[in-house]
Amino acid sequence: MKDAQRTRQAILLAAQEAFSTGGYQNTGIRDITARAGVSVALVNRYYGSKERLFEEALADTMTPLTIKDIPRAEFGSRMVSLLLDGVGLRPPPLPMMVLASGDPGARAVTQRLLTKFVYEPMAQWLGPHEGHARAARFMMLSAGLVLYSRIYHLDVLVPEADPSMRQWLLEQFQAMVD
């Protein structure tokens, strides 16, 4: 059973890496199995379909996101470290989400998981006063940051964030919880 667990984990990690770099549409099951060093039959056995594998791979990257466990006073700095530096996330879910937006099925999966693991918990954590609006601001700033630091590189973010940009991002994230 331990081998089955290791195989499932290897497939999930390979899928996360592939979907984070190539996107949903450009990643095939054979790409994932080559990375994981397993047969296509094992992917089908454990996950059944590419869309189901994508869902589990994305959910696995989001599950550790426990926003409510971040001390409010450290929120801005933690978010900048998390999103810009990848501290605490491997691989980060946002590139997978952004690169999946061209496929209707993957987009629906992403929307559902994003609502379940990020938007609703964050809105509750931020409280009844504009919780959903503040959670939406967080999601928009996060998505934009990932888009322009990992996919469409802006020179103020890549290869390293300009200190003034980093400070501005920290202040924006922190303002959302203060």
Which regions are unreliable across 5 or more consecutive residues at pLDDT < 50?
none
SSE succession: HHHHHHHHH
Mean pLDDT: 90
Major sheet: none
User: Helices and strands: which structural class?
Assistant: mainly alpha
Shape designation? globular
Oligomer: single chain
Q: Any overview of this molecule?
A:
With 178 residues, the chain is an all-alpha fold. It folds into two domains: 2-49, Orthogonal Bundle (Arc Repressor Mutant, subunit A); 60-177. 71% of the residues lie in helices and 0% in strands. The protein contains nine helices and no strands. The chain has helices at 2-22, 29-36, 40-47, 50-62, 75-85, 93-99, 104-126, 131-151, 163-177. Helix 1 crosses helix 2 (29-36) and helix 4 (50-62) runs parallel beside helix 7 (104-126).
